[in-house]
Amino acid sequence: MNKKNMLARVIEWGIYLLVFLLPWQVRLMWKMGEVAGGYLEYGTFSLYGTEILLLVLVVLNLVRIGGDRGDKGNKGDRGFLRYFIVLFFVVSCLSIFWATDSDLALYKFGVLLEGFLFFWLIFSSGVGRKKIAWMIVLSGGLQAGLGVWQFLAQHVAGNKWLGMATQWPMDNGVSVVGTELRRWLRAYGSLPHPNILGGWLVIGLILCVGLYESVYGTLVAKWGSQETKRGFSAMVLMLFFVVMFSGLLTTFSRGAWIAFFVSLLIYWFINLLKKDKLGSVVGAKFLIIAVLITVMFGLAFREPFLARVKGEGRLETKSIEQRKGAYREAKEVITKNWLRGAGLGNYTLYLYDADLRTIFDSAGMEGYMGLSKEGGIAEKNAWDYQPVHNVWLLVWGEIGILGVILFGLIFLFIALKALKAGKRLPAYGLVMLVIFILSLFDHYFWSFYFGVMVWWLVLGLSILSTSSRPSGKDEV
After folding, report:
1. Quick check: is 87 in a domain?
2. pTM of the entire structure?
């Protein structure tokens, strides 16, 4: 193996390692965010361990491409995509100049840029689609197992080297399902919030279905031949599906539940309409398994399950009202900043400053000085300042109308390409649907480092599926 091939292999397996390690949140927090006298995650400056690995791989890939005298990969009709991406980053960069905290906006721009570098790294390095899908499934299985253990133990053990904070159900600010009898801790895995774990598991579950279809189809086509390896792979995938789906239930993430069942139902229904027997059988099989596990989980943990499904109880009602209030806040932010936005990463700071201005305008200096000694607003804590739980509204609120349009065009271009790839409905197209549904219920694809990386990972995996390279055994 010559040096060029060796470098390519190092980059390829480095990417697989990066995908697998992505959920582990070990980081150096070098500037703590603060608002209303308390900690603000959305204003914190951090350096994640996976960022270092990403940047090393980017440098190595640049060396490889330089040695090849340019990237000779398939360009096709992706010219428009390049223009959309460039314009999107120009608009995002411009928002730094009018942001409340320009340093924070610059930091968030760097995270966004890293997300694009991850995207570029995936489709320019010649990695295998199926291997990336396997890494996501393996990572999801590990996270799901950890999440199930956390839910059963009702405790998250903190470990700074794994990026995990200690969580107890009785602590304030911890994600729980409240019932009349107790507070049920939701599963975190190694991620900052159960909803984020839920999103990662749904992506892994859908890719697991795609991988299983590929393996199962080969087994059916070659029935009677020596297919021990593929038969073992099919059993492993089925096992991982059961573990990941069980983990998904313990997150109690309604948005993730909806994304999973809607995506899998669409997969089954389209294959049924196209009279694709293989896809129909696989889709029906996994739907039945998911329903059976849901029924068993609901019977075993009836109290928190029904509370979450029905939205009953004090905490559930409070959560729903907070989301409604966040949408009202988003309307105000967008109305006042519809053209250029409040600044990249500055949404929550804008909300806090708006509260300060309101107090000062209504009560003058006396009202302004009525703030608490810690600098917080009466009856409002730091954790009350949250981004709106909708990626598209958050993007609009931070970088304006042109930014959200370009963000949408990038997504739409890649989604349409992914949906057209392959004879069957590809798993990549379904994963694009998953992150779109999730983006309507939460903000982490824009507000958290992990979410940004996952968003661009899915885009990169999807654009890779449209490559003109021979797909063959690499198709999912």
Report:
1. yes
2. 0.92
